[in-house]
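Q: Start with the shorter request: fold the first protein.
A: Done. Sequence, then structure:
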Amino acid sequence: MKKHGRYLFGLVSCLLCISLAQAQTGATGSNGDGHNVPPPSQPSNTSDAPACKNDCKKEEEVSSFESVKGSAVTSSKSVSTAVGTMGRALRSQSRPSGSPSGQKSNSNQGNRREKGGGASADSITDSGRLSPFIIINGAETDKRETSKGVAFEQTEKSLLIGADYRLNADRILGGVASYSDGDTDLQANLGESATESYLLGAYASQYWGGIYLDAFIGYGELDIESERGASGNRLHGSTDGNFHTADLSLGINHHMQALSVSPAVRLSHTRGKINRYTETAAGTATPTTFNTQTFESLNASASISVSYATPTDWGVLIPTATFAYIHEYIGAQSIETSAAGQAQVQITEAPVKNYKDIELSLVAQFRRGASAFFSYAVYADNELFDRESINLGIRYELP
């Protein structure tokens, strides 16, 4: 299944003409006598590695948990974010006056209302109700070394396929299926892991004039493979898990001729578990048993989006800039492990409570119901993570 999923992702990537750099991500690492290879201070440096800041084994096991948790949380959020990005930009093209410049049109655009949502919004012809879409997402995350965990580098790729249906001028329903592949490398070649996730989601949008409410719910499953340890003393782990996610956004669109300003608030929650597993050992390495682990993320954000709709001979071009301030409510969590008959409870990294997310997007709304979009987002003022992500999507409103 893993090969088929990667093949499908690569095929669609070629069709959409996008190339994303691929890094790797990781799990824990120890040598045969239970002591770990010392990590360096930066993920990319594998020489002159300093000693671990605390207990190497604990730091690496915490980082393994954080990398898997990160894959699940970000894969679920990337689905709702990617779907919402297209909907937000396309909404800026729909305005009560009926045309991007604010002038009355002699076509049926003059009778349009603001609608759309999720991946849906008015096409230029406003002729169809059912709109299939496909979105590719890629992200790279660098986690810094701390006293609780080693640094790691993580790359994620996601493929989303879905459709939405306009019930009436003010209400949209949609569904989406996604496949995500996350790879992690711990610093100093201490280990690596691969996490696949499969998610099914549904969303809805409701409009009251310029005010909109977007809701998203989803359920996903995880497939996790990890390998760690020194050469000749490798430890391999294999397990699975599941998670559910929910997302709620409330915003308002202010149109000033071609300019649109849209403040919004958003609440996102993800909760899941990783099933119990025991590593298998090669050489003299001591296997570790990881008990069932739960993870959770709950954050709220306040954002403002500014877009400008420019009419062209072929349609409408809409650049958008979004600035979001994010607050995380869930603190540090714990994992339970045992090795050689000794059990221990470890406390994970405390997430950054407040940080910012900046996104730039560009939507091309063509005639006859076709549209395409591109977005780039980056974390700002996050002391633990550096993260960049890209979305590329196409959508077609059926006649």
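Q: Next, the second protein, separately.
A: Sequence, then structure:
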Amino acid sequence: MQTTANSSKISAKETLLTPRFYTTDFKEMSKLDISANANEFDALLEEFRADYNRQHFIRDEEFQQSWNNLEQKTKALFIEFLERSCTAEFSGFLLYKELSRRLEKTNPVIAECFLLMSRDEARHAGFLNKAIEDFDLSLDLGFLTKSRKYTLFSPKFIFYATYLSEKIGYWRYITIYRHLEEHPEHRIYPIFRFFENWCQDENRHGDFFAALLKSQPQFLDNLKARLWCRFFLLSVFATMYLNDFQRSDFYQAIGLDSRQYDIQVIRKTNESASRIFPVALDVDKPEFFTYLDECACQNRMLIEIDEKNYSNLIKNFKKLPIYLKMGMNLLQLYLIPPIDSASISSTVR
């Protein structure tokens, strides 16, 4: 992110771990038959229409102060946290808005659900961008819309990835909220007070995608589905773990150990996903987090190479063995035998 003046606009630097913008096969999506789960969709739609957080995202007097007293490194890390969160929420808004438009004629119930979820995501992104403005910056969302490359995912991959994204978002927000409720001295900015209600939006969105998956048993009830569920669980967990390893100083600033925080979020998300996915990852295996630690260290090495004044040829040469080691660690993680979800009896609050 670069700044030149007050209220300057910033655009996110894209890396392998940057929040992605997605699109899908809208024609295939319009053909999905959700009649087997129609009652659940009707109930979800009523919840979305209720709009429980309509009056929640309102800035109060605590925001009306200078934040120049924040230590410079903490401020930079916090701004990056806001920027990444805003990008992710805005990505969800764009996808859901387009899905609502494309499905309006073929499946009006699903279309309205997507429309109301896009409302939530736009509200979140706007609230985050307003927070960024408190630091004399703003995220150029219009530029992001035009400049970002869109990743094409089939509907079932959208369902897997977005379900997990919403559920892991719930556990990330609620874990931070509960920690700062117990330790308010670490609440460096008032946005954290909004996380309890905020994460309920994430939870409702996750429940919607769970209902979509349940309405399409072919996405859950065969060997191919089991393999894809393992893949997306690992992808989402590894992405979060590597990202947070790079930003451990931010979590330290709000009184959290980033590794312990991630372990808790992964365990809770794994339990939540086991209610829908046919398998869960065996995160109790001692080697599970050991492999993730090794991947995080290797990712740090890749970043350090990028920061050196090497030519691209030299950088790629130095990165190749690190990529190979990271790939092997991720493969070892994937090959850890999963647990059948039916055998998991943990109760998730």
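Q: Describe the second briefly.
A: Residues 18-54+70-153 form one domain. The first strand starts at residue 8 and ends at 10.
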